[in-house]
Design goal:
The protein is of the alpha/beta class and 264 residues long. The chain has a domain of 161 residues: Roll (Diaminopimelate Epimerase, Chain A, domain 1). A hairpin with a 5-residue loop joins strand 6 and strand 7. Helix 3 packs parallel to helix 7 and helix 6 packs antiparallel against helix 7. The longest helix has 21 residues. It is elongated and about 110 Å long.
Length: 264
């Protein structure tokens, strides 16, 4: 009786943990690097797995890398689409948000593919930009650097709303810093240019030559008090003005994607 009660309580605890533990904890053990071409060592795979997990959590999108030697003759696009269907790739659910980079060593093919959120944020144009940043590393057989660049660049591009050019310098920290310096310098120049030099007060400041004349040879003071008039201010301080190929597709399972493919 006691044993049965213990088993019941233990089972209930496991069920509770399975249902209520956040999916992110399970996602930490998820595989995202599939190196079927054996071009990476164990240390590189581990580093890429950690990097992919980090940026996947930031963008709620899995960043997945697929490599194949291509000896079976499978086209890279079909291979990636079928892989997405069969493995059920996605960040928090099967067939969910995912960005894929796939290469075929036999044919020197490379393709970037985005599903759901990644399809929207990594459209054809952005996928092409990502692919073009990755291709030089692949051509030099620097595969780790290529895959690292894919993860970081794709995640960065996904931060921007659709229709915005993520490479615009005004969206970069360096561009914003330069703009702030230039604007500050322009404002300072305008202020300095419009500041009047300090006037020096002399007897001529209060004399009106058109209405002043000598009435007698000898003058005398009628009053000893002097009434001073406030000198008018110059309020006229007007400021100045400062002047490969890309395509949409659909997997055999019915999941649409954005993409860009090319050679390396």
């Amino acid at each position: 009786m006691v044993v049965n009660r213990f088993l019941t309580i233990t089972s209930a605890i496991f069920i509770f943990m399975f249902l209520f533990i956040p999916q992110e904890i399970f996602a930490q053990n998820k595989q995202r690097i599939y190196d079927e071409a054996n071009i990476l060592n164990d240390q590189e795979i581990e580093r890429l797995e950690q990097l992919a997990m980090k940026y996947s959590d930031k963008q709620a999108t899995d960043f997945v890398i697929l490599t194949t030697d291509g000896k079976d003759g499978t086209d890279i696009e079909n291979y990636m689409a079928d892989f997405y269907d069969h493995e059920g790739l996605g960040y928090d659910q099967k067939h969910g948000n995912a960005a894929l980079l796939g290469i075929n060593l036999q044919e020197s093919d490379v393709m970037v593919m985005g599903f759901y959120k990644a399809k929207e944020r990594l459209d054809n144009d952005r996928s092409t930009k990502v692919r073009e940043k990755v291709t030089p590393y692949l051509s030099d057989q620097e595969y780790f650097e290529a895959f690292e660049t894919f993860i970081i660049t794709a995640a960065d591009y996904m931060r921007y709303r659709p229709g915005v050019n993520p490479d615009n310098i005004f969206y970069k920290t360096s561009g914003q810093l330069i703009s702030a310096i230039v604007l500050g310098a322009l404002i300072t120049f305008i202020m300095v240019r419009n500041v009047n030099p300090k006037d020096t007060t002399t007897p001529a400041t209060y004399r009106n030559d058109q209405h002043t004349r000598v009435l007698r040879k000898r003058d005398r003071y009628i009053r000893k008090s002097v009434t001073r008039k406030r000198r008018p201010r110059n309020n006229n301080r007007g400021g100045g003005r400062g002047g490969g190929g890309s395509s949409f597709g659909r997997t055999s399972g019915g999941h649409s994607y954005s993409g860009s493919r090319g050679k390396f």
